[in-house]
Amino acid sequence: IYNGQLTLKYPDTDTIYCYDDATNQLLPQYAIFTDEEKGDYEATHLWFKDRKAFDYFSIFSYYPTKDFIYLVGSKGEEVYTYCYNKKDGSVRLQKRQSAITERDVPWFSFPLRQMKRDFVLDNDLGGGDFTVDSRSSGKYWVDILEPGGDENWIDIDQIKSSTVIDESKKKELIRVLESATEDSNPILMIATLK
Fold it and tell me: Of the chain's two ends, which shows fewer C-beta atoms within 10 Å, N or C?
């Protein structure tokens, strides 16, 4: 739900639906088209996937905002974040590296393969990355930074080399991050998206 409008996308389908109160139906709102090969349904939708199933393109989540739709997908060990502009139809693409992990599962003779697909945006206001940890049904998205943790921390050198909209916000963010210690409280970053 965003701004009072329920939308949904079934896993690995190419249509985003919106709920219409008047007709009590899900109606197609957007059709997603890409030239990427999606692979065989049987191979890509198994719980215990072969490694080659990850070589096919898959969109697994989307995030609507007022002016944009963000789609997060993957192919191989790359995570793709598409930003579709609702007003002019333009699309921006951001690629990031990830890794396919394998772990043995008791009672089975084959490994469980998974891939971490974080929703990461570039912070054009203050610099660095913004990993969406949670979002409200409105316009606010949250990133929780854990001081001393490698899981979700921002590279200060990346921020320093970033081109940003507001240099004062960049300096403030650098100051806060540099003053944080392992004993500091988590840093809560809240984004307001267009």
Answer: C
Contact 93, 82 (CB under 8 A): yes
Element (H or E) spanning 17, and its range?
strand 15-20
The torsion angles phi and psi of 51, rounded to 5 degrees, stand at -60, -40
Give the whole-angstrom CA distance, residue 133 versus residue 150: 15
Give the domain-ending residue among 74, 96, 117. Answer: 117
Tell me, yes or no, whether 100 and 141 share the same domain. Answer: no
pLDDT band of residue 191 (cuts 50, 70, 90) is confident
| Domain coverage including residue 55 | 1-117
Band (pLDDT 50/70/90 cuts) for residue 137 is low
pTM: 0.74
Read off the pLDDT of residues 22-43 as tens digits, 9 standing for 90 and up: 999 999 988 888 777 777 777 6
The domain boundary, picked from 117, 143, 170, lies at 117
Q: Cα 104 to the chain's mean position, in Å?
A: 27
